Amino acid sequence: MSFFTSSKFQIRQGSLSDAFVIDHHKLGRIAELAVSNRFAEAGWQIYFRNQKIAGVEVDFVATNDRSEWALVEVKTLKDQVYSGTRITKRQKQRLYRVSRWLNARFGSYGSIVSAFFNSSTGSLDLYDQNGEVWHLERGEGED
Known about the structure:
Number of strands: 10
Structural class: alpha+beta
CATH topology: Trna Endonuclease, Chain: A, domain 1
Helix content: 25-40%
Shape: globular
Strand order of the largest sheet: 4-7-8-9-10
Order of helices and strands: EEEHEEEEEHEE
Largest sheet: 5 strands, mixed
CATH class: Alpha Beta
Number of domains: 1
Number of helices: 2
CATH architecture: 3-Layer(aba) Sandwich
Distance between the termini: 53 Å
């Protein structure tokens, strides 16, 4: 089987399912955009997209009109299985450092949210720092 490879995509001659393989960094950015769009549709404002806070790069921070914030770490899944192990202990420690910074800046408590985006189905599962299901609620005045 012959194939062509670049840093952005790979095309193989063979089965149709192998026709395109998207670079995992590009897929991650697409997932981050899809998740942040869902937050925005629910009335949340998006800040600090792919920026460093307290020395840690974050996917994004969202705030709502109730002065709540959510530090969102997006992970892309290729199947229906939730994988809490995809966020390592080191990543959790870094996210807690950012959480303390956000608490000081916004003067309110927020959540660290793991967003698991299924690239096959478009489904989104949200979990808080305790592994509990986190519900994306619409802002006040939203339908």
